[in-house]
């Protein structure tokens, strides 16, 4: 077996899908803004790529709350904060857990500058600064499987059936590399018909991906079905499937939680788990951009690009002094570039 690295590992394919979606995704409503993030989901499920179709005016108002995500506790505060000064226990609905945690969330929200807080004697009062907007229109989930054959499609099909039944996303897609055949049989035969299929050419082919199968829209506002256990399909398996219902309010909160994390992270946050301070680390394709290892001559994965890599070579101290070649050295410059690109996508 050859020891040569994969010219495009799944990690790099995932970044390429994110880049394509950010540039070319056509939202359901043409006036929507598109935000793309990666590796997000809920406790039982994590999607490779998330595409948010956002209301432009709502997205602009969301920026008033800062670039950090608002977790469920903070959203409970900002969504119900009143226009006038009010005792926090009169202003906020009963959360179903001890009020001391709500009080801490009020303090955190005030420290973040997203609500106003004051004391009237021993009572803590708050009032809102801005109304939290309805900024997310649709959530689209993409599963990235570059080398999807019939066997892999069979395994993935079970998970996608659960995604369709739960309908937490408005659409579910699979992105895979093309095989060069006119029809992608492994993609079409084993996956649920509700799931869309994107067939991506190789990284050096210079062609846009093709839609091999259009997805069905899922009703994310309706109750969903969470499949807990299902028969294995054997000839003597007579066991029944176990499932439970997911109510629309749970789904709404989970979708908003995913959107908040996507707003904070974007897809360029991969650099946070890599070593851009290595002298061999480069960014290729400035439109992307994608990480490149000059020592190995390939796109590294986030696991490969670490301090334990045998080719890891820290930047010389001189690179990080006297502003050469950019303030803070090349590693910090890479992070600054990706942060600027991430910020522009929120605007």
Automatic annotation (TrEMBL):
InterPro entries: DUF5787. It comes from the Archaea. Residues 320-347 are annotated as: Disordered. This is DUF5787 family protein. It comes from Salinirubellus salinus.
């Amino acid at each position: 077996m050859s020891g040569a690295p994969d010219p495009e590992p799944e990690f790099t394919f995932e970044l390429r899908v994110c880049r394509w979606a950010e540039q070319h995704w056509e939202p359901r409503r043409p006036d929507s803004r598109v935000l793309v993030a990666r590796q997000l989901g809920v406790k039982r499920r994590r999607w490779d790529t998330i595409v948010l179709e956002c209301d432009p005016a709502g997205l602009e108002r969301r920026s008033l709350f800062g670039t950090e995500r608002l977790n469920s506790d903070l959203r409970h505060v900002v969504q119900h904060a009143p226009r006038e000064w009010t005792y926090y226990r009169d202003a906020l609905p009963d959360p179903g857990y001890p009020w001391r945690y709500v009080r801490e969330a009020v303090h955190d929200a005030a420290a973040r500058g997203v609500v106003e807080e004051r004391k009237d004697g021993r009572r803590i009062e708050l009032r809102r600064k801005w109304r939290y907007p309805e900024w997310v229109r649709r959530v689209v989930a993409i599963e990235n499987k570059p080398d999807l054959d019939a066997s892999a499609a069979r395994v993935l099909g079970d998970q996608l059936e659960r995604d369709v039944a739960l309908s937490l996303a408005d659409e579910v897609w699979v992105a895979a590399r093309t095989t060069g055949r006119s029809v992608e049989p492994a993609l079409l035969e084993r996956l649920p018909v509700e799931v869309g299929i994107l067939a991506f050419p190789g990284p050096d082919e210079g062609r846009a991906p093709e839609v091999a199968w259009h997805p069905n829209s899922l009703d994310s506002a309706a109750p969903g079905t969470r499949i807990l256990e299902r028969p294995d399909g054997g000839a003597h398996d007579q066991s029944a499937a176990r499932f439970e219902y997911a109510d629309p309010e749970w789904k709404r909160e989970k979708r908003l939680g995913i959107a908040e994390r996507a707003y904070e992270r974007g897809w360029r946050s991969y650099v946070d788990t890599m070593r851009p301070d290595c002298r061999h680390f480069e960014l290729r394709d400035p439109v992307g951009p994608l990480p490149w290892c000059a020592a190995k001559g390939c796109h590294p994965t986030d696991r490969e690009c670490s301090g334990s890599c045998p080719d890891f070579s820290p930047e010389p101290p001189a690179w990080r002094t006297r502003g050469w070649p950019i303030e803070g050295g090349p590693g910090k410059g890479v992070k600054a570039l990706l942060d600027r690109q991430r910020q522009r996508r929120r605007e």
